[in-house]
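In keeping with the milestone schedule agreed at the kick-off meeting, the structural modelling team has produced records for the first pair of proteins. Each record is given below as a sequence line and a structure-token line. The laboratory manager (R.T.) confirmed that both were archived under the project's standard naming scheme.
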Amino acid sequence: MPISQIFSALVGLMFTANAFAGQTLDDFAMRSEVTQPVIIELYTSQGCSSCPPAETWLSAFSYEPRLWRDYFPLAFHVTYWDYIGWKDPYGQRAFSQRQYDHLNKNHIKQVYTPQFVINGVEWRGWFDRVLGEVLTLKPRSVGVLDVNILGKQLRATFTSRSDSSEVARLHLALVGAGITTDIKRGENRHKRLAHDFTVLSHQTFDANEQSKGEFVGKITLPSDLMTNAERLAWVAWIEQEGQAIQAVGDWLVPNNIH
């Protein structure tokens, strides 16, 4: 058997064994499909009275059997509503900036909450509570993403099937689910809000200088926020030309959440 086939077989066994044992914060390995999934970004805030219904809609993906294969929901909490009386503990300025980056790249026409961006394009279908045209898109072959986390070290490769000369960037998010918050002030005062797919941390990694499809780096964990979640997930995705094109993700065994 050729060396290349032996290597591929060993990699496949590694992913199978890891999936059987369960993914953890410091021992994670996933490989994507070849076709592009649906990567859903929600921009939201605990200080926005219109946001809880959107978060409830996003939470329904917890019961979607194709979650982490075809669907990758991500809730980014912004900070620009903090001034009206309630500081969102999950809000980060970097998340607000990410939303404005979408505006600057003409992915969206304006900034508001709740706002959905799917695969780098503004999506208003949530107001009808259906994915609509998103589900009718013809799947396109974009390439395979492999992500490995061991300890605090990340290694990833993306084998692109695109002719684009644009260098890809890897994004890594730690996502929390089963989060509840009692809101004492602001537009949602006296309410208990529930959150799933909340982005607790977000890092980006540039490609290796010698290979635009390889990524290596150290990860950081938001220990002050992790304990608020009933469960966690790693989600990694590739962006090219400013748009999300491929992703991997999975729930984690709660070996060291609390």
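The second protein of the pair:
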Amino acid sequence: MSLENMKDLQLEEKHPQPETKEVNGILMTKMISDNWEKIWNFQAKPDDLLIATYAKAGTTWTQEIVDMIQNDGDLQKCQRANTFDRHPFIEWALPPPLNSGLDLANNMPSPRTLKTHLPVQMLPPSFWKENSKIIYVARNAKDCLVSYYHFSRMNKMLPDPGTWEEYVETFKAGKVLWGSWYDHVKGWWEAKDQHRILYLFYEDMKEDLKREIEKILKFLEKDIPEEVLNKIIYHTSFDVMKQNPMANYTTLPTSIMDHSISPFMRKGMPGDWKNYFTVAQNEEFDKDYQKKMAGSTMTFRTEI
């Protein structure tokens, strides 16, 4: 890590810890655990579309792409409301008077597009029963870790990540909200052949967005003209989305997300982990990774 980065990290004040509590061995906020029965009994519908990811794996990006597809590239419609109001985050519970994801979802007319970070074994069973379509996006562990670390520094709703060194260990141990990255990507990967799940990789989207959007179109059984496709590619590029207040979370108060610490949309580039991992950390991480991913058919790219 560069000296400059180290200085930045030392200047910050720690933020107050939100309460956390495990649900079935997975770390969650206490607000989620208190509402767990309601979340587990959430009623999905056959025409729901669920966007599922591990935290910081390209969720908002995928939401914007899907929203633009559903609205035939109509920008005004896509800027009708914040991402979090357009696509309810089903397990996210906030203190009143703020809306919980469940309330938003239950009050939303069909067809709904919903969002979750839940590991596959904790997805409300009605999604399987109703055979709802699910798009899952996976991102390589090292970039996910870096992005989640910075997100935890600026988002007061998440536990304080501590120092970079501490966080690397916390992440490896799966002691972060929504649990282990390793179990998450593998669990959803194993489920993809039994259910209507389109499994995408963040790095593939970065490499060739058009190709990946075409996979989404096929999955959603939707056709759009070439000019609409090009418009979607342009408006869901990182630089354009970073300027879009309906997608970049800047409308939230700094008491929730402090973008001066780290912007919600930070870099969005595969390979940024190299600016943070020391050689020793990287070697240790790789060793641990081999152990945890042993026997899996998944392959991730840590740069493109």
